[in-house]
Write a structure and sequence with these properties.
157 residues, alpha+beta, 6-stranded mixed β-sheet, 4 helices, binds tetrahydrodeoxyuridine
């Protein structure tokens, strides 16, 4: 499943979610890559949990925006009830903004979302957005990470 939509074509709760992701990106700490990412997820109780990327001088320990949002959902007690996650981002450098490019979760984040989808027993919807929310790819974790390594691989149901 993969559909490209504009903001106006989204249902109201998805519209709120992509806006929450965009607002979260404003808090990114990304002095090294210059790429600010925001993520927002909705759990089945309707609660929204946000994250932004947090970089480090030791480049490899960067925290992706999705990691922050998933961690926040866990702290709130809904880590096993994630339904939808929205991700957006942009290059901060003036003149280098690619407003047309949607952000898709990196491989590690796909693996983390896949685990959440096993816990929730739903194929988590993933809304991949560009910064101005003019382009939104509506997809799902099963589409982004098919045949992934999951609990079943370890004999767990
Ligand atoms: N980044 C995310 O926050 N999420 C992703 O799924 C892709 C990459 C961040 C990490 C780093 O701070 C910056 O984007 C450039 O890779």
């Amino acid at each position: 499943m993969r559909t490209m939509l504009g903001l106006g074509q989204l249902a109201a709760d998805d519209r709120d979610l992509v806006r929450a992701a965009r607002d979260a990106a404003a808090h990114a700490y990304a002095p090294y890559s210059g790429y600010a990412v925001g993520a927002a997820l909705r759990a089945c109780d309707g609660s929204v949990h946000r994250g932004c990327n947090v970089e480090n001088a030791a480049y490899g320990v960067v925290l992706c925006a999705e990691v922050g949002a998933l961690a926040a959902a866990n702290v709130a007690g809904v880590g096993d009830a994630v339904l939808t996650i929205a991700v957006t981002g942009r290059l901060l450098a003036a003149g280098a903004v690619q407003s047309g490019a949607v952000v898709t979760p990196c491989g590690r984040c796909r693996q983390l979302i896949l685990e959440a989808s096993h816990r929730a027993r739903v194929d988590i919807r993933v809304l991949c957005c560009n910064h101005d929310l003019g382009s939104i790819e509506v997809t799902s974790i099963e589409h982004l990470l098919p045949n992934g390594f999951g609990p079943a691989s370890l004999g767990r149901t």
